[in-house]
Write a structure and sequence with these properties.
heterodimer, A: 78% helix, B: 518 residues, 14 helices
Chain lengths: 317, 518
């Protein structure tokens, strides 16, 4: 357990360096004069001219070489200092905290919804394979998967916010503001989740050990609880942990559409404004969270399935 | 059961983390009733507490006030300053403050508080730095004298700008950074969540007429589609700045009211008049004449009456001239060009007397999504004249930086002439002798400069109007900058929200006038 955690922490450190370095050099390659972009974000386009750009250039030392900036950043990172936003002047970590609250809340709610929806519908489908419900679920999952998050969100807003007026079309601050954005993300995710769950459940239920357990005289529920759930849980947890990437991608669109001030939304704005410390900080924190969730999923799988342990020790996980 | 222990513990941990983040992402909302609240939804984000960055939102939400205010016609009216008076050559201005004005923290407005705010504003790259301020001093509890380095008859208009709003001394830290918004406006701040949200409530000790609404909320939403959907779903919403597609959709939604007004912004073309072709007025005139402004304004941008026949929009009535000549047809423009010594090749390309083809790069940017569309329309329209245009869509910084390094040929952008209500100060910068990032490039006119100089100290309104007309006529005739379309601001709301006013100078939401129909 400890070696796995240490190994993952090492991976996180390596990943942080790689993400930070990549974002640093990629943002420097973006077109346009960085001083003007920052001045535009600070003072508004109407007040941005070469004088304002020059003030920004001098204040932030933008005439210094990229390498000097890079090593400053690396030195700060080693002291867990993400620097200050070039636009607002606030500490990056201070700005990231509220943004992360929104993004993590939205992501976790969407993931939980997708997990419940996908697993329950997968279970129902697997109960009677190729039956009416299974075929309806197949149709539903194909439809949901074919629709981009943007369209799903717009349809949900159209129905629940405009037609029924049950929920707000955007904004944040109360628990009900999360319902539509979370469902917009979860529906697309559960589309595949439900088919994956169905297949995993079918495979497990048709496995020899499962049939043998029934022959031993265990009730269907006992068999499902003792032999079904552990074997179904491992691939399901793995699948959903990998789907975090899909969620983080979808979060950018959903946050922007529902006017949620999360990390995805902030990242887009930071890129437009060339706010390099904010871009790096957001990418680093998002990457760390993604890796941390991967670690949690590994630990959960390891605790459920003891067969994983030797594989981990061999370094195959 | 033991094998589920770790999984359960981990799930519990995730749930606790999730709950922590969820609780910290929910914000206590003030107790409001639908009849007493308006939800303003607009694209402008609150970047920080700095007035330079976000003062426009604080001013629009009636949180902060300036010394001088303006009505919808752009006429100056008293606000925190009751009166103002220049000396004989407008280099010294005496302001008398309104008595009995309280800040939201209960502190009184004094001359020293005003000087404190204006001094901090003057130390940042803001509009105030262009007002030649030399010294500010308090001569009594409610009197201020501001001395300028140069004569400036339009000085009070600078003090209407959001960056010059007056905050309480307690709003600043020792370095002059704003740590809290403590203004004198009709609404006081309840809660601010940078970058997207703020809630305000009526300030009961306000010096003027109290607003009819008790609460107002502001939400920044950058997507026009989202704002449109919010307008449809929330009967208390007041939504600003919709794109042309959303405006078109509105025609099918009878439950919503659309209000539009022309604002002080012009979409215009600047060019390097030192470069071949552009240095010739015949070419600049031909380029201007070939633009089908009506189609761009009404067909593409859905702005009725948005054709820009001169650089300043109708809002600036005193500056407007009556253009004398009728717009020629494409065939007539081509004939004019041939008569001026230009020729057409067999494949229809326009060349000069040395056989050099007329081709150039038109730079624009996508921050304002309509600009690339207009650029490609211009490309097609000028193609009819045999001019090859390469449209380069980058970001807004390409224009000032290529102006500075001399590589700019032509640029399309939107420009705000109403920053200080009176366009005089903006025009002097745009048409300055040394050129301007967002103005002329290698173009000078001695008559124009002397008109500017005369207007700077002219206090007689009739002579001032004559000078303004003269300035507009020179710009219109010489075309160092070619106007294309005037912008329009629009707002959409449910019909029960009454007294919605669109400020053509983009300074106010006029929340104090809003109320709901019985």
């Amino acid at each position: 357990m400890v070696s796995l955690i240490l190994k993952r922490l090492g991976q996180i450190a390596l990943m942080l360096w790689a993400i930070g370095t990549l974002t640093f050099f990629l943002t420097r390659q973006l077109t346009g004069d960085i001083a003007y972009r920052i001045a535009g974000s600070r003072y508004g386009y109407d007040n941005t001219d070469s004088i304002a750009a020059e003030i920004v250039r001098t204040e932030l030392g933008l005439t210094q070489s990229s390498w000097l900036h890079y090593f400053h950043w690396l030195g700060d990172l080693m002291q867990f200092n993400l620097g200050r936003s070039l636009v607002s002047g606030q500490w990056v970590w201070q700005e990231l905290q509220p943004q992360l609250s929104h993004t993590l809340s939205l992501t976790l709610i969407a993931l939980a919804l997708a997990f419940v929806l996908g697993t329950v519908l997968g279970l129902i489908s697997a109960y009677n394979p190729n039956g009416i419900i299974d075929r309806l679920c197949l149709l539903l999952s194909s439809l949901l998967r074919a629709l981009p998050t943007f369209i799903i969100a717009t349809l949900l807003i159209g129905f629940f916010a405009i037609e029924l007026r049950w929920l707000p079309a955007g904004g944040y601050g109360q628990w009900y503001h999360y319902i539509l954005p979370a469902f917009s993300l979860a529906l697309g995710l559960s589309a595949v989740s439900m088919r994956v769950s169905r297949q995993i459940i079918l495979n497990v239920m048709h496995a020899d050990y499962y049939q043998f357990a029934r022959l031993k005289g265990l009730t269907p529920w006992q068999t499902f609880f003792r032999h079904g759930i552990p074997n179904i849980a491992v691939p399901l947890i793995t699948y959903h942990s990998v789907q975090l990437v899909y969620l983080i991608e979808g979060v950018v669109i959903v946050e922007s559409l529902f006017a949620l001030p999360g990390s995805g939304h902030a990242l887009v704005h930071a890129i437009i404004a060339r706010d390099i410390p904010m871009i790096q900080g957001t990418a680093l924190v998002m990457g760390s969270i993604f890796t941390a969730f991967g670690l949690l999923a590994d630990l959960a799988n390891r605790s459920i399935d003891p067969r994983i342990q030797p594989q981990l020790q061999q370094g195959t996980m | 059961m033991r094998k589920y222990l770790y999984a359960t513990l981990l799930l519990g941990l995730i749930a606790i983390i999730g709950q922590y983040f969820f609780l910290s992402s929910t914000i206590p909302t003030p107790p409001t009733t639908k009849a007493s609240t308006v939800n303003v939804i607009a694209p402008w984000e609150i970047n920080s507490l700095d007035l330079n960055q976000s003062g426009v939102i604080f001013q629009r939400m009636n949180l902060v006030e300036t010394l001088v205010e303006a009505n919808e016609k752009g006429e100056l009216i008293p606000s925190l300053a009751l009166t103002w008076q220049p000396n004989h050559n407008a280099t010294e201005w005496h302001f008398t403050l309104r008595p009995n004005v309280l800040f939201h923290n209960g502190q009184p407005l004094t001359a020293q508080t005003v000087i404190n705010s204006l001094t901090f504003a003057n130390h940042k790259p803001s509009i105030l730095q262009k007002a030649f301020i030399n010294e500010m001093k308090a001569t009594s509890e409610l009197d201020i004298v501001i001395t300028l380095n140069e004569s400036l008859t339009t000085f009070p208009t600078f003090l209407t700008h959001y960056s010059t709003a007056i905050l309480a001394t307690q709003a600043y830290d020792k370095a002059g950074n704003i740590t809290e918004i403590i203004g004198t406006g009709a609404f006081k701040l309840l809660n601010i969540d940078i970058p997207q949200k703020l809630n305000v409530s009526r300030f009961e000790q306000y010096w003027g007429t109290l607003p009819m609404l008790e609460y107002a909320n502001y939400l920044a939403s950058s997507r026009s589609e989202t704002r449109m959907l919010m307008a449809q779903s929330d009967p208390n919403s007041l939504v600003f700045n919709l794109d042309s597609a959303s405006i078109e959709r509105l025609k099918n939604i009878p439950q919503l009211t659309l209000k539009s007004a022309s604002i002080a912004r012009t979409i215009q073309l600047k060019m390097d008049t030192a470069k071949p072709f552009f240095r010739d007025l015949t070419i600049r005139q031909a380029l201007s004449d070939a633009i089908d402004r009506k189609s761009i304004a009404e067909g593409v941008l859905k702005i009725e009456g948005g054709s820009a026949d001169q650089i300043l929009p109708p809002l600036f009535n005193e500056w407007r001239i009556t253009p004398q000549r009728a717009t020629p047809t494409i065939a007539e423009i081509r004939e004019n060009l041939i008569a001026s010594g230009y020729r057409y090749t067999t494949n229809g390309q326009l060349i000069d007397s040395q056989g050099k083809p007329f081709q150039f790069t038109l730079r624009t940017f996508s921050d304002r999504p309509e600009l690339p569309v207009i650029a490609t329309i211009l490309q097609a329209q000028w193609k009819q004249l045999g001019i090859e245009v390469n449209v380069a869509i980058g970001n807004f910084s390409d224009i000032p930086s290529s102006h500075q390094n001399g590589t700019l040929e032509m640029a399309l952008y939107a420009f705000n002439y109403g920053k200080t209500l009176d366009p005089f100060s903006t025009l002097t910068q745009v048409f300055s002798l040394e050129g301007n990032d967002w103005g002329v490039m290698n173009w000078q006119n001695a008559t124009l400069q002397s008109a500017f100089n005369a207007l700077q100290w002219e206090q007689d309104p009739i002579r001032a109007t004559t000078l303004k007309q003269q300035i507009s006529q020179i710009i219109h005739t010489e075309l160092p900058i070619i106007p294309v379309v005037y912008y329009q601001q629009n707002a959409v709301f449910h019909p029960h929200l009454q007294n919605v006013v669109i400020d053509p100078f983009e300074r106010r939401f006029y929340l104090e006038r809003l109320h709901y129909a019985e």
